[in-house]
Design a protein that fits this description.
- By secondary structure, the chain is mainly alpha-helical.
- It has helices at residues 3-23, 49-55, 62-68, 85-95, 97-100, 111-124, 129-159, 161-200, 205-265.
- Helix 8 (161-200) packs across helix 9 (205-265).
- The chain is elongated and about 145 Å long.
Protein backbone atom coordinates (compact mmCIF):
# COMPACT_ATOMS: atom_id res chain seq x y z
CA UNK A 1 0.00 0.00 0.00
CA UNK A 2 1.38 3.38 -0.97
CA UNK A 3 1.89 6.29 1.39
CA UNK A 4 -0.85 8.39 -0.27
CA UNK A 5 -3.50 5.68 0.29
CA UNK A 6 -2.53 5.38 3.96
CA UNK A 7 -2.87 9.15 4.52
CA UNK A 8 -6.25 9.24 2.72
CA UNK A 9 -7.71 6.30 4.72
CA UNK A 10 -6.53 7.83 8.02
CA UNK A 11 -8.10 11.20 7.30
CA UNK A 12 -11.39 9.52 6.22
CA UNK A 13 -11.50 7.46 9.42
CA UNK A 14 -10.97 10.56 11.54
CA UNK A 15 -13.86 12.35 9.80
CA UNK A 16 -16.33 9.55 10.54
CA UNK A 17 -15.26 9.55 14.19
CA UNK A 18 -15.92 13.34 14.45
CA UNK A 19 -19.41 12.96 12.94
CA UNK A 20 -20.32 10.17 15.37
CA UNK A 21 -19.13 12.23 18.35
CA UNK A 22 -21.11 15.33 17.29
CA UNK A 23 -24.47 13.79 16.36
CA UNK A 24 -24.75 10.48 18.26
CA UNK A 25 -24.31 9.51 21.83
CA UNK A 26 -24.80 6.36 23.86
CA UNK A 27 -26.22 6.18 27.35
CA UNK A 28 -22.74 6.67 28.74
CA UNK A 29 -22.13 9.55 26.26
CA UNK A 30 -19.19 7.75 24.75
CA UNK A 31 -18.27 6.83 21.20
CA UNK A 32 -20.19 3.85 19.83
CA UNK A 33 -18.11 0.71 19.91
CA UNK A 34 -20.19 -1.36 17.50
CA UNK A 35 -22.98 -1.06 14.94
CA UNK A 36 -25.32 -3.16 17.08
CA UNK A 37 -25.53 -0.51 19.80
CA UNK A 38 -28.66 1.70 19.37
CA UNK A 39 -27.90 5.45 19.40
CA UNK A 40 -30.01 7.71 21.58
CA UNK A 41 -30.93 11.14 20.25
CA UNK A 42 -30.87 14.01 22.65
CA UNK A 43 -34.35 15.33 23.48
CA UNK A 44 -33.10 18.43 25.19
CA UNK A 45 -33.98 21.84 23.75
CA UNK A 46 -30.84 22.57 21.82
CA UNK A 47 -31.95 25.95 20.51
CA UNK A 48 -32.38 28.75 22.99
CA UNK A 49 -34.53 31.86 22.69
CA UNK A 50 -31.57 33.87 21.44
CA UNK A 51 -30.91 31.33 18.70
CA UNK A 52 -34.60 31.44 17.72
CA UNK A 53 -34.33 35.23 17.30
CA UNK A 54 -31.24 34.73 15.14
CA UNK A 55 -33.03 32.11 13.03
CA UNK A 56 -35.97 34.51 12.42
CA UNK A 57 -34.98 35.96 9.05
CA UNK A 58 -38.43 37.33 8.19
CA UNK A 59 -38.10 40.29 10.57
CA UNK A 60 -41.78 39.97 11.45
CA UNK A 61 -43.04 40.99 14.84
CA UNK A 62 -44.25 38.20 17.16
CA UNK A 63 -47.85 39.29 16.61
CA UNK A 64 -47.47 39.10 12.86
CA UNK A 65 -45.74 35.72 13.08
CA UNK A 66 -48.63 34.40 15.16
CA UNK A 67 -51.15 35.71 12.65
CA UNK A 68 -49.19 34.03 9.85
CA UNK A 69 -49.29 30.75 11.76
CA UNK A 70 -53.03 31.08 12.49
CA UNK A 71 -52.56 31.80 16.20
CA UNK A 72 -53.73 34.52 18.56
CA UNK A 73 -51.51 37.57 17.92
CA UNK A 74 -51.13 38.50 21.61
CA UNK A 75 -50.78 36.27 24.64
CA UNK A 76 -52.06 39.08 26.86
CA UNK A 77 -54.05 42.25 26.40
CA UNK A 78 -52.01 45.04 24.81
CA UNK A 79 -54.74 47.69 24.45
CA UNK A 80 -58.06 48.56 26.04
CA UNK A 81 -60.14 47.12 23.21
CA UNK A 82 -58.52 43.70 23.66
CA UNK A 83 -60.79 43.25 26.71
CA UNK A 84 -64.02 44.13 24.88
CA UNK A 85 -66.62 41.50 24.06
CA UNK A 86 -66.51 42.38 20.37
CA UNK A 87 -62.76 41.67 20.18
CA UNK A 88 -63.14 38.45 22.15
CA UNK A 89 -65.83 37.26 19.74
CA UNK A 90 -63.57 37.99 16.79
CA UNK A 91 -60.68 36.06 18.37
CA UNK A 92 -63.01 33.13 19.05
CA UNK A 93 -64.23 33.09 15.46
CA UNK A 94 -60.75 33.32 13.94
CA UNK A 95 -58.49 31.27 16.22
CA UNK A 96 -60.79 28.99 18.20
CA UNK A 97 -61.39 28.17 21.87
CA UNK A 98 -57.74 27.76 22.84
CA UNK A 99 -56.84 31.28 21.76
CA UNK A 100 -59.74 32.83 23.69
CA UNK A 101 -58.51 31.83 27.20
CA UNK A 102 -61.91 32.78 28.70
CA UNK A 103 -65.29 30.99 28.72
CA UNK A 104 -66.88 31.05 25.28
CA UNK A 105 -70.27 31.94 26.77
CA UNK A 106 -69.47 35.63 26.31
CA UNK A 107 -70.10 35.18 22.58
CA UNK A 108 -73.77 34.40 23.27
CA UNK A 109 -76.01 37.50 23.31
CA UNK A 110 -77.56 38.67 26.55
CA UNK A 111 -81.36 38.52 27.08
CA UNK A 112 -81.58 42.26 26.44
CA UNK A 113 -79.71 41.89 23.14
CA UNK A 114 -81.99 39.00 22.15
CA UNK A 115 -85.08 41.12 22.84
CA UNK A 116 -83.61 44.04 20.89
CA UNK A 117 -82.89 41.75 17.95
CA UNK A 118 -86.42 40.34 18.07
CA UNK A 119 -87.86 43.86 18.10
CA UNK A 120 -85.70 44.84 15.14
CA UNK A 121 -86.75 41.79 13.12
CA UNK A 122 -90.40 42.40 14.03
CA UNK A 123 -90.19 45.97 12.68
CA UNK A 124 -87.84 45.35 9.72
CA UNK A 125 -89.55 42.12 8.62
CA UNK A 126 -93.21 42.28 9.70
CA UNK A 127 -94.25 39.42 7.42
CA UNK A 128 -93.71 35.79 8.26
CA UNK A 129 -91.76 33.46 5.98
CA UNK A 130 -94.96 32.04 4.46
CA UNK A 131 -96.32 35.54 3.83
CA UNK A 132 -93.03 36.62 2.27
CA UNK A 133 -93.07 33.58 -0.02
CA UNK A 134 -96.66 34.34 -1.02
CA UNK A 135 -95.74 37.96 -1.73
CA UNK A 136 -92.78 36.88 -3.86
CA UNK A 137 -95.03 34.51 -5.82
CA UNK A 138 -97.59 37.27 -6.44
CA UNK A 139 -94.90 39.71 -7.60
CA UNK A 140 -93.43 37.06 -9.88
CA UNK A 141 -96.89 36.35 -11.32
CA UNK A 142 -97.48 40.07 -11.95
CA UNK A 143 -94.14 40.37 -13.73
CA UNK A 144 -94.93 37.35 -15.90
CA UNK A 145 -98.36 38.77 -16.78
CA UNK A 146 -96.85 42.14 -17.65
CA UNK A 147 -94.23 40.41 -19.80
CA UNK A 148 -96.88 38.37 -21.61
CA UNK A 149 -98.96 41.50 -22.24
CA UNK A 150 -95.90 43.29 -23.57
CA UNK A 151 -95.06 40.38 -25.88
CA UNK A 152 -98.64 40.24 -27.17
CA UNK A 153 -98.57 43.98 -27.84
CA UNK A 154 -95.29 43.65 -29.72
CA UNK A 155 -96.68 40.73 -31.74
CA UNK A 156 -99.80 42.76 -32.58
CA UNK A 157 -97.72 45.72 -33.70
CA UNK A 158 -95.41 43.50 -35.71
CA UNK A 159 -98.47 42.05 -37.46
CA UNK A 160 -99.45 45.57 -38.59
CA UNK A 161 -95.86 46.51 -39.39
CA UNK A 162 -96.23 45.57 -43.05
CA UNK A 163 -99.25 47.81 -43.44
CA UNK A 164 -97.44 50.64 -41.67
CA UNK A 165 -94.42 50.24 -43.96
CA UNK A 166 -96.70 50.36 -47.00
CA UNK A 167 -98.32 53.55 -45.69
CA UNK A 168 -94.94 55.20 -45.12
CA UNK A 169 -93.73 54.18 -48.55
CA UNK A 170 -96.95 55.54 -50.09
CA UNK A 171 -96.46 58.87 -48.29
CA UNK A 172 -92.86 59.07 -49.48
CA UNK A 173 -93.90 58.26 -53.06
CA UNK A 174 -96.69 60.86 -52.90
CA UNK A 175 -94.26 63.48 -51.62
CA UNK A 176 -91.73 62.66 -54.32
CA UNK A 177 -94.46 62.83 -56.96
CA UNK A 178 -95.59 66.26 -55.71
CA UNK A 179 -92.01 67.53 -55.76
CA UNK A 180 -91.56 66.20 -59.28
CA UNK A 181 -94.81 67.84 -60.41
CA UNK A 182 -93.69 71.14 -58.83
CA UNK A 183 -90.37 70.93 -60.71
CA UNK A 184 -92.13 70.16 -63.98
CA UNK A 185 -94.59 73.01 -63.41
CA UNK A 186 -91.73 75.39 -62.75
CA UNK A 187 -89.93 74.27 -65.90
CA UNK A 188 -93.10 74.81 -67.95
CA UNK A 189 -93.56 78.31 -66.54
CA UNK A 190 -89.94 79.19 -67.26
CA UNK A 191 -90.38 77.93 -70.80
CA UNK A 192 -93.61 79.97 -71.19
CA UNK A 193 -91.87 83.14 -69.95
CA UNK A 194 -88.98 82.48 -72.30
CA UNK A 195 -91.31 82.01 -75.29
CA UNK A 196 -93.16 85.24 -74.40
CA UNK A 197 -89.89 87.20 -74.23
CA UNK A 198 -88.78 85.69 -77.54
CA UNK A 199 -92.12 86.66 -79.12
CA UNK A 200 -91.75 90.21 -77.78
CA UNK A 201 -88.15 90.42 -78.99
CA UNK A 202 -86.91 91.16 -75.48
CA UNK A 203 -85.06 87.93 -74.81
CA UNK A 204 -81.93 88.43 -72.72
CA UNK A 205 -80.60 87.25 -69.38
CA UNK A 206 -81.65 90.36 -67.43
CA UNK A 207 -85.25 90.31 -68.71
CA UNK A 208 -85.48 86.54 -68.11
CA UNK A 209 -84.23 86.95 -64.53
CA UNK A 210 -86.69 89.78 -63.83
CA UNK A 211 -89.57 87.79 -65.27
CA UNK A 212 -88.67 84.72 -63.21
CA UNK A 213 -88.38 86.74 -59.98
CA UNK A 214 -91.75 88.33 -60.70
CA UNK A 215 -93.23 84.89 -61.31
CA UNK A 216 -91.82 83.60 -58.00
CA UNK A 217 -93.29 86.58 -56.13
CA UNK A 218 -96.69 85.94 -57.63
CA UNK A 219 -96.39 82.24 -56.71
CA UNK A 220 -95.54 83.09 -53.10
CA UNK A 221 -98.41 85.57 -52.94
CA UNK A 222 -100.80 82.95 -54.29
CA UNK A 223 -99.64 80.39 -51.71
CA UNK A 224 -100.00 82.95 -48.96
CA UNK A 225 -103.56 83.73 -50.05
CA UNK A 226 -104.40 80.03 -50.13
CA UNK A 227 -102.96 79.57 -46.63
CA UNK A 228 -104.92 82.54 -45.38
CA UNK A 229 -108.10 81.18 -46.94
CA UNK A 230 -107.58 77.81 -45.25
CA UNK A 231 -107.00 79.51 -41.91
CA UNK A 232 -110.22 81.50 -42.30
CA UNK A 233 -112.14 78.36 -43.09
CA UNK A 234 -110.66 76.65 -40.04
CA UNK A 235 -111.61 79.61 -37.84
CA UNK A 236 -115.17 79.56 -39.21
CA UNK A 237 -115.47 75.89 -38.36
CA UNK A 238 -114.20 76.55 -34.82
CA UNK A 239 -116.72 79.41 -34.41
CA UNK A 240 -119.54 77.13 -35.56
CA UNK A 241 -118.49 74.44 -33.10
CA UNK A 242 -118.31 76.93 -30.21
CA UNK A 243 -121.66 78.47 -31.14
CA UNK A 244 -123.30 75.07 -31.26
CA UNK A 245 -121.81 74.17 -27.89
CA UNK A 246 -123.08 77.43 -26.36
CA UNK A 247 -126.56 76.78 -27.74
CA UNK A 248 -126.56 73.31 -26.20
CA UNK A 249 -125.40 74.78 -22.88
CA UNK A 250 -128.16 77.40 -22.98
CA UNK A 251 -130.75 74.72 -23.65
CA UNK A 252 -129.45 72.69 -20.73
CA UNK A 253 -129.44 75.75 -18.43
CA UNK A 254 -133.02 76.67 -19.41
CA UNK A 255 -134.15 73.12 -18.71
CA UNK A 256 -132.36 73.19 -15.37
CA UNK A 257 -134.03 76.53 -14.47
CA UNK A 258 -137.44 75.14 -15.38
CA UNK A 259 -136.84 72.12 -13.17
CA UNK A 260 -135.85 74.39 -10.27
CA UNK A 261 -139.00 76.52 -10.70
CA UNK A 262 -141.22 73.45 -10.82
CA UNK A 263 -139.65 72.07 -7.68
CA UNK A 264 -140.24 75.37 -5.86
CA UNK A 265 -143.93 75.44 -6.89
CA UNK A 266 -144.40 71.94 -5.55
Amino acid sequence: MSLIKLIFSASLRSRFQIISVRYYSSKSKEILDSAEEVPVFSKENVFSEASEIIRNKSRLTPAHRNILRGQNPYDESMAWYHNTVKYKKRILGRYGMEALKVPAGLAWPTPEEVEDRKEYERIAYPLSIQEQLQKIKEEKKKKEEALMARQMEIAKKMAGMKQLINQVQAKIADKEMKELEAKERKKRKIEEVRQQLIAQGMMNNANLTDALSQMEKEEKKRKKEMKKQKMLERQKKMVEIVRKKLQDDNIDSEAWNENVVDSKKE
